[in-house]
User: Which sequence fits this backbone?
């Protein structure tokens, strides 16, 4: 097995397998990964009030 690639690991009793971490990575997000282009919570669009009032149909 090559150490410079991810490998599939079987997990006993689980339906899904998992991948080993990619070389040179961690599970922690980078501080630069924050999305600065995302609208803030205070920003409102023209349809926000209507979307809050709308109720999905019940089946």
Assistant:
């Amino acid at each position: 097995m090559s150490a410079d690639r991810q490998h599939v690991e079987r997990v006993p009793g689980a339906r899904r397998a998992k991948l080993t971490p990619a070389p040179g990575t961690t599970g922690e997000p980078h501080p630069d990964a924050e999305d600065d282009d995302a609208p803030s919570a205070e920003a409102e669009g023209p349809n926000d009030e209507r979307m809050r009032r709308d109720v999905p149909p019940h089946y």
Summary: The mean pLDDT is 79. The first strand starts at residue 8 and ends at 9.
